[in-house]
């Protein structure tokens, strides 16, 4: 058996992480537990110090207890590489003259009077959550002081042009010109995430401000909960320069307003580097067909796809020869058609998450979850047969959205035969009405728990569906019973 020192660094780090329960609020016992590992070697010292000083309140409480002067404070601050800053306004007067020279990762999760003490050349990861209230001066200093910035997330939960009553008002708010100039100076950016409460006019300023050479290095772009006006023809055109882009997402459509997805798809269609695509906005009609028309091999290296929309638009995606695709997440807002036969050509799929339903609906009332609804979707044998051809699947999830999924024809023998088509299955989740709930549950116990080696995994944690309040003892033998089976693999 390997000793601790022989384990991969990632496993050593995971073990050290378990020395404390809550990294944000270290107890006195947590701190004592970290003192011994800090003395083992340089790797242990660096990682345990990351845990010990990852929150400024932990550091300041130590300063307060020991009465350190500025020189002693600076000595401790020099050890900090990762910092989760929930608020700086309480401690700002104590840290404004310090230099966080070793800081590589800064995550701002609360109000802050300023970030100037944290802006150092070694900073590579910077996250803005909760608020983004920088002044133009701070943004310019960020561009000058952090030339090696690789990852930037700006996802504020509060308005960017306001600060709390405790924090002084922002008298020099960021304008689009300054914001655009800042992104023009980001020469080494690899990952960019924008959205939430960030003003819509700043997003196109950021995208258009990227220098073509800088855009060519970008590997990830994530836009979250954005307004339609945030994406313009000019801002989307920068995607043509993103020749190294591996991941693109437009996620969390909380606004309900559609963004110009077609304009985005046209620029992504022939991008050879793209491996992951997620679009949380509905694809409707022939929007996909129009984008891929005339291209010989669109999305030819795509490995992960997550889209939602009607049958026509999703079928256009699935009609492509995407044999590189291994992960597929679909939300089909069309209960009248059957999407499963279209999946059969994706022979390399290992992960399938399929949701079928309707978007506009009246909410289910208590006790009515499985009562027949006018839009219920009934699976046919061709659906299950098509899925059974995907023998490489390791995870299957089929769930309804605001409707019921039914398969009254599914017998014990059919279900047994169907599941045996997936020799590598590790995760199974079905939310479907069919016969013989007890048999299916017992079958899963036999297949996955009594002989876990056949699927290469540890015993499962099995969670059966709740009792249907509508199910009555007077149900006839020909009426389907509710089956909601959820089996989750316990990975090492």
From TrEMBL:
Gene3D superfamilies documented for this protein: Ribonuclease Inhibitor
BP term (GO), one: SCF-dependent proteasomal ubiquitin-dependent protein catabolic process
Annotated Gene Ontology cellular component terms: SCF ubiquitin ligase complex
Region (Disordered): 461-492
SUPFAM superfamilies given in the database record: RNI-like (SSF52047)
The protein's name in its UniProt record: Uncharacterized protein
Lineage of producing organism: Eukaryota, Fungi, Dikarya, Ascomycota, Pezizomycotina
């Amino acid at each position: 058996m390997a000793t601790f020192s022989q384990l991969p660094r990632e496993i050593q780090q995971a073990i050290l992480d378990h020395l404390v329960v809550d990294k944000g609020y270290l107890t006195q016992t947590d701190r004592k537990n970290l003192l011994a590992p800090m003395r083992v070697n340089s790797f242990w010292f660096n990682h345990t110090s990351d845990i010990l000083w990852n929150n400024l309140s932990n550091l300041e409480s130590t300063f307060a207890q020991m009465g350190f002067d500025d020189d002693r404070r600076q000595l401790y601050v020099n050890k900090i590489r990762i910092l989760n800053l929930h608020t700086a306004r309480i401690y700002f007067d104590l840290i404004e003259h310090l230099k966080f020279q070793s800081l590589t990762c800064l995550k701002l999760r609360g109000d802050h009077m300023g970030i100037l003490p944290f802006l150092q050349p070694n900073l590579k990861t910077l996250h803005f959550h909760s608020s983004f209230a920088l002044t133009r001066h701070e943004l310019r200093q960020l561009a000058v002081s952090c030339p090696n910035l690789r990852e930037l997330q700006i996802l504020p939960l509060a308005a960017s042009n306001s600060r709390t009553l405790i924090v002084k008002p922002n008298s020099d708010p960021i304008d689009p010109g300054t914001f655009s100039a800042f992104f023009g100076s980001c020469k080494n950016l690899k990952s960019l995430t924008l959205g939430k409460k960030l003003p819509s006019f700043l997003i196109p300023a950021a995208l258009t401000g990227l220098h073509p050479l800088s855009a060519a290095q970008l590997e990830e772009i994530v836009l979250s909960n954005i307004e339609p006006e945030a994406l313009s023809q000019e801002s989307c055109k920068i995607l043509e320069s993103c020749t190294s882009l591996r991941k693109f997402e437009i996620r969390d459509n909380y606004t309900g307003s559609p963004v110009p997805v077609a304009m985005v798809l046209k620029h992504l269609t022939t991008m050879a580097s793209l491996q992951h695509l997620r679009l949380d906005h509905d694809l409707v009609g022939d929007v996909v067909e129009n984008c891929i028309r005339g291209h010989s091999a669109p999305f030819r290296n795509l490995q992960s796809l997550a889209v939602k929309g009607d049958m026509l638009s999703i079928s256009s995606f699935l009609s492509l020869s995407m044999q590189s695709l291994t992960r597929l997440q679909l939300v089909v807002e069309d209960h009248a058609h059957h999407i499963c036969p279209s999946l059969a050509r994706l022979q390399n799929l290992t992960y399938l998450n399929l949701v079928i339903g309707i978007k506009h609906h009246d909410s289910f009332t208590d006790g009515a979850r499985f009562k027949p609804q006018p839009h219920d979707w009934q699976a046919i044998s061709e659906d299950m047969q098509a899925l059974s051809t995907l023998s490489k699947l390791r995870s299957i999830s089929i769930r309804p959205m605001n409707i019921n999924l039914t398969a009254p024809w599914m017998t014990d023998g059919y279900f047994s035969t169907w599941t045996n088509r997936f020799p590598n299955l590790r995760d199974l989740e079905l939310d479907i009405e069919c016969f013989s709930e007890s048999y299916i549950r017992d079958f899963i116990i036999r297949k996955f728990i009594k002989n876990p080696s056949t699927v290469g995994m540890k015993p499962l944690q099995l969670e059966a569906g709740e009792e249907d309040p509508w199910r009555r003892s007077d149900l006839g033998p020909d009426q389907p019973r509710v089956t909601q089976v959820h089996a989750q693999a316990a990975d090492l």
